[in-house]
Amino acid sequence: MKLPIVIHTEEDYDRAQQRVEELNAMPNSAEKERELHALGEAMLAFELRRDDADD
Q1: What is the pLDDT of residue 44?
Q2: What is the dihedral of CA 24, 29, 30, 36, to 10 degrees?
Q3: How far apart are CA 30 and CA 46, in angstroms?
Q4: Counting beta carbons within 10 angstroms of the beta carbon of residue 53, is it exposed (0 to 12), middle (13 to 18) or buried (19 or more)?
Q5: Is 7 exposed, middle or buried (CB count within 10 Å of its CB: 0-12, 13-18, 19+)?
Q6: 3: closest CA among 45, 48, 34?
Q7: For residues 7 and 43, is the Cβ–Cβ distance under 8 A?
Q8: What's 25's DSSP letter?
Q9: Residue range 4-46, pLDDT digits in tens
Q10: At 3, is the pLDDT very low, low, confident or very high (cuts 50, 70, 90)?
Q11: Is the distance from CB of 10 to CB of 53 less than 8 angstroms?
């Protein structure tokens, strides 16, 4: 079982963006789609937490 992706810092967020770019350069596969989906959810959750902190 793989652990969920969690982004805690801006540095983590930057690494996630870099990983998305790497994945997009790879051929399509089910594993690629799962990782992109997990990264997208983690990035969105981080953005929402950051926006809440700004309010």
Answers
A1: 96
A2: -10
A3: 24
A4: exposed
A5: buried
A6: 34
A7: yes
A8: T
A9: 889 999 999 999 999 999 999 999 999 999 999 999 999 999 9
A10: confident
A11: no
